[in-house]
Structure formats: C-alpha cells, structure tokens
Write a structure and sequence with these properties.
The complex is a heterodimer of chains A (352) and B (265).
Chain A: H1 10-18, H2 21-30, H3 35-49, H4 53-78, H5 87-104, H6 112-130, H7 135-155, E1 165-166, E2 173-174, E3 177-178, H8 182-204, H9 207-217, H10 219-224, H11 229-255, E4 257-258, H12 265-278, H13 283-299, H14 307-321, H15 338-351
Antiparallel strand pairs in A: 1-4, 2-3
Helix pairs in contact in A: 3-8, 4-8, 4-11, 4-12, 4-13, 5-6, 5-7, 5-11, 6-11, 8-11, 9-11, 12-13
Chain B: E1 5-14, E2 17-27, E3 31-36, H1 43-50, E4 58-63, E5 66-67, H2 73-79, E6 81-83, H3 96-102, H4 112-117, H5 120-139, H6 155-168, E7 173-177, H7 185-200, E8 204-208, H8 212-218, E9 221-226, E10 229-234, H9 236-241, H10 243-250
Parallel strand pairs in B: 3-8, 3-9, 6-7, 7-8
Antiparallel strand pairs in B: 1-2, 1-4, 4-5, 9-10
Helix pairs in contact in B: 3-5, 3-6, 5-6
The chains are: A mainly alpha (352), B alpha/beta (265).
Chain lengths: 352, 265
C-alpha cells in the first residue's frame, strides 16, 4: 500500500491563505472555538448593563427560547424530522412541573425527575406511531399532535382548563437565597441553558449524532450500515422532548402561571423558524437564530404596530439571501497532519 | 463448514413480474463470485433481497448456515453483510471521514452520556474511529482530502470512499454493486487489484458487473442471470463456453425463432 505524499493537506493551507479580507476575518471569528464561551460571558454580563425588570424578563424568556431551539435542532437539524408540534413538549414539561409543584407545594426544581420521565413518555407516545412516516406526512401528524396536546390541556380539570395553572411555587429557596429573584433566576436559566446547548452540540458530534445525520441524508444507506433507523429517529425525538421539558420547567417557574394559550401552533412555528433561520444542524447558528427570533420583536418595539411586518420582511430577506440559514454547519474537519500520515504509512508497511 | 453465503431458490415478484426466479449460489470465505447478466436480469434485485431491502417472495438466504431471509437491512448488516450501491449512496453533506465512520456504527464503544461529558472512553473511541477511517481510506488507495464534504469529490474518488465505508464494517461478506461502472481503464485496473486484496483479508466478495473482461479476470466463479433466471454457474472458462450465456449476450443465430423460456411478459 503506497501513500503518495502529494495532495492530502497541502491544498488546505493554500486555500486558507488565499482567503483574506473581511470574509476571512468574519469567518475566523465565527469559527473560533472559544465563541461559545464568549457568548456565555456576554450573557452573564448583561445584567450589569441593564437590570430593569423588563429587560431581565425579556432576556430570561430569550434564554428559555434558546433551549427550545436547541432541542428542536436535534430533531429537525440533526435527524431531519420536520416537527410542527414541538411546543407540545414545552407544554408537557411546564404542566408536569406546574401541577406537581403546586399540588405538593414543592420547589419547582424537585419536579425535574418527573418532568424528564413525562417528556420521555410523551416523546415515545408521539414518536412511536408517527416516525414510521416520512417527511410531509410526519409534519402533518406532528402538527396534529401539537394541537391535541393543547386542546387536551384546555379541557382537563387537572390542568386547570382554559385558565391554566397559577401560583406555581418558586424554583428553589436555600436559606436567604430565593432563586425566584429575577436576577438570580436569570443566571440560573442561563447556566442551565448553556449546559443543555453544550450537551446537544456534543451529542451532534458523537456516534449517535452522526447516526442522526446519516438518517437525515440517506435512510437506506444508513440502514445498510447497520443503523436501526427507526430506533435512532425515536431517540432524536426523545432527546428533543427532554430538552423541551427542561424549557417547560423553566418556563413554568419563570412565569409562575401557565395556560393553554402559551402553547399555540404559532410558538411551534417560531421555534422552527429559529432553527431554520440560524442554520439547521449547527448549534451555534441555532442559538443565534433563537436570540434573533425572541429579541428582534423587542428591538422593533419602537415601530409599534408595524413591528411584526418589519420582522416578517427581515425573515424573508434572510431566507432569500441565505436559504441555508444564517450560519449553517461547516461540513469540514481537520485533515491528517504530515506526521500522522507518515506514521500510518509505516504502520501499514509493518502490517504487510 | 457451511459457506459464508448460501442463496437457495431465491425468488421475488413485483406484481406479476418475477424479477428473480430461482437463483441459487454459494460464496465462501476468500472467494470472489461475480453475478452477471444483461440489463434487467434481476442482479440488483437479488442483492436487495440478500441485504433485506426487498422481502423475497420465495427461497432463502443463509449466512454461515443461519437463515437471514426477510430480516430488516440493519439486522442483516449486524449479522455481517456489507454492501455498496449501484448509484453511489453516500452522505453528501458530510465529510469523507464521517462517511467512512458510518461503516463503523456497529463498533459501539460509547454511549450518549460519554458524548455529553466527553469521558476518556468517548475520546478513545472517537480517536479509534478516526484512525480506522484513515486506515480504510489508505487501504482503498484514496489520496484526496479527507476533511471536506463528499460532494466536492470526483466520481472515482466517491466510489473509493463508498468501498472504504463498506470495508470499515469489517463484514464477512461484501456485496459490490457495479464497482467498475463509470471508471476509466487505469481505475479499473486498480479496482481489480483492490478486490483481490479485499478477498485476501478473508472476505467473501460477491460483485455485480457489466464489464466482462474485468469479471473474467478477477472472479473464481461466475453466476449468469437472464430474465430473473439463473442460466449458468461455473468458472470463467466454463461460463465463456456455455451456449446459453452466449445466447443471452449475443442473441441467437435464428432471429425468427421464439425463445419459449422467456415468454412475452
């Protein structure tokens, strides 16, 4: 076996060198491996810049929206399953946390195991029958399940019917520290959300994450490689559901009141929009998309009644000029270094 | 010892058309078997039956003596069958290395908690995946870049990567569906050499091929199909001399005579 020492990694260096100017500067910033930490740093510093209750409320809501987008990115971005009823999992998480903590007067944090279990169950119940369908059919059925979840919540007594659940106890109290304090709750949310985003990004770069992407690109070829496509899709659904459940738990304790009105189809559409706008499959892009979708309407508030019109125009413009999303996955990885190549050549020579 | 692959009276019908009708052959370890036949003879349908993409309507497929007929593709892959596709089925937006890693899915070695917490086990297993991917790319003689998406590659390179992906499975049985299609002469020569090296790994290789020259040179035995039926099975020399094979490929002398075996369907 000969390995010729020509092309393999030399081109890369040349190509990188040629790409100069503004584009290169911008992409070097975006591809910097510390960009996640920088973003977290900015999020942690924000309360020092503006700490009005209004701003904190907006920022906490945005952080919760980020975790939803991260969860949906597992389902849509990684695994390619178009889910139009994702908000159902936010509802399951929020109602589970709300009902249990109110009934037993428990801090919301203690409902976490129940929230996770209920979301896994919800993922199984919604996923098991629907994931046998492909693309368009799946989208329609998930849309149906999303609505079923909301209407069920609207009609049950345990969920409080149309008026929902209010007076949900605080997140947690330790001594003098009440986590329900807006600043503390903001920090708590940011930390939980950052952890979940990191976990989802790491999942995307693992064996399971690759299996999701194989299924997304070519189900038959994935199956021929020994990947149980149905199981893998169900796992994507369950992970998405659990991320949604975390979002729901934070949502319930942030607002202390939930009602079916919070879980309408528009919310599912907005989360999906964040994923598509940011760049399906790239967790960093999706976080950016989520922040844009949740914060832009606030920045456009000065335009009062025109703000949703402007928001819509902005979205259309982005989709026309960047159909792959603002920040799509890079789709490249490191080449072998010359030393590694020579080592492999030697090892192969020995094996012969 | 039972052969690696044993196909018995395999049969599949789509509506009234029997795409494969009574195909039987065996493949042993360290053996290259070719399945040839004119277009539409049912070669790819037979492959799809063996690998579980079609459910055979009759007959059976045995792998090391165990019946795998009608199992789902992922389970058959698990049992030790690997394949390539007639029209490249690669994961286009993913890198060359990731495509080869797909063949290693069954290695396992990490779970989702390892991935989330980047445990030493996870790092070891990822390093192993990468090392193996490079090894199999070297094995097939792939010399292009490896960290770039597969869609940037030439057709010949994509073919190499697909074979590397199938090899990474380390299966006992490798099915190659028209590996030489679209390759130029020198690429075909290196393919010949590659197929022999795959056989020397101890693998049973079954290949579908149109290129008669290549088939005659590389295979130990040849199975000839026409209209779903098996018309010959033997060494290249035997097959070359078989009148039925000559007829299938070159037609009969007497054009007016109906061929009763094929019918009008």
């Amino acid at each position: 076996m000969t390995i010729d020492n020509s092309t393999e990694s030399i081109h890369t260096v040349e190509a990188e060198a040629k790409k100069r100017g503004f584009g290169a500067w911008l992409s070097s910033i975006f591809e910097n491996k510390y960009i996640g930490l920088v973003a977290l740093g900015i999020a942690l510093l924000m309360p020092f810049l503006i700490a009005t209750p209004y701003a904190l409320n907006i920022m906490t809501t945005a952080a919760i929206f980020v975790v939803l987008a991260a969860g949906l990115n597992i389902v849509v971005g990684y695994c390619g399953l178009l889910d139009l009823g994702y908000i159902a999992f936010l509802a399951v998480g929020a109602y589970t946390a709300g009902i249990i903590s109110k009934a037993f007067q428990l801090p919301v944090l203690f409902t976490l195991p129940a929230v996770v279990i209920m979301c896994i169950l919800a993922g199984l119940i919604i996923g098991a029958p629907t994931l046998r369908l492909r693309s368009d059919y799946l989208a329609i059925v998930t849309l149906g399940f999303g609505e079923i979840t909301r209407i069920t919540a609207n009609n049950l007594t345990i969920t409080g019917g149309p008026s929902g659940i209010f007076g949900i106890p605080g997140f947690l109290v330790i001594g003098d520290i009440d986590f329900q304090n807006p600043v503390i709750f903001y920090y708590l949310t940011v930390i939980i959300v950052a952890g979940l985003v990191l976990a989802a990004a790491r999942l995307g770069r693992s064996r399971l994450g690759r299996a999701w992407k194989f299924v997304k690109e070519d189900e038959d070829a994935a199956e021929a490689m020994g990947i149980h496509t149905y199981k893998v899709k169900l796992l994507a659904y369950i992970f998405g559901a659990v991320w949604g459940g975390f979002g729901g738990m934070l949502f319930a304790s942030h607002l202390t009141a939930i009602s079916p009105m919070s879980f309408v189809f528009l919310q599912s559409a907005l989360v999906l929009m964040a994923v598509v706008l940011g760049g399906m499959g790239n967790m960093k892009g999706v976080v950016l998309g989520a922040l844009a979708i949740s914060l832009l309407p606030e920045f456009l508030r000065d335009f009062s009644s025109y703000r949703y019109l402007l928001f819509g125009i902005l979205l259309v413009v982005v989709m026309v000029f960047r159909p792959q999303g603002f920040w799509p996955p890079k789709g490249a990885e490191a080449e072998r270094t010359k030393a590694q190549r020579e080592l492999a050549a030697m090892a192969n020579g020995l094996k012969k | 010892m039972s052969p690696v692959l044993e196909v018995r009276d395999l049969e599949i019908a789509f509506g009234g058309v029997k795409a494969v009708d009574g195909l039987s052959f065996t493949a042993n370890a360290k053996e290259i078997i070719a399945v040839i036949g004119p277009n539409g003879a049912g070669k790819t349908s037979a492959f799809n039956c063996i690998t579980g993409f079609y459910k055979p309507t009759g007959g059976s497929v045995l792998l090391n003596g165990a019946d795998i007929t009608g199992k789902r593709p992922a389970d058959i892959a698990h049992e030790g069958v690997s394949r390539t596709f007639q029209n490249l089925r690669l994961f286009h937006d993913m890198t060359v290395l990731d495509n080869v890693r797909a063949g290693m899915h069954l290695y396992g070695g990490q779970n989702f908690l390892d991935a989330i917490f980047h445990t030493p086990r996870f790092k070891r297993s990822e390093a192993h995946y990468t090392e193996e991917a490079h090894y199999w790319l070297d094995f097939v003689g792939y010399r292009g870049r490896r960290g770039v998406p597969i869609r940037n590659l030439s057709y010949g390179q994509q073919k190499q990567v697909e074979i590397a992906r199938a090899l990474a499975r380390k299966a006992e049985l490798l099915l190659l569906d028209e590996p030489a299609a679209g390759l130029n002469h020198s690429e075909k020569q290196s393919l010949l050499e590659l197929v022999r090296r795959i056989r020397d790994l101890g693998t049973a290789v079954v290949l579908i091929e149109h290129d008669m020259g290549l088939v005659m040179e590389v295979s130990e035995r040849i199975v000839v199909m026409n209209f779903g039926k098996e018309i010959a099975d033997g060494t290249p020399a035997e097959v070359k001399a078989n009148p039925a094979v000559i007829e299938a490929y070159l037609g009969k002398d007497d054009e007016d005579e109906e061929v009763p075996a094929h019918g009008d369907a």
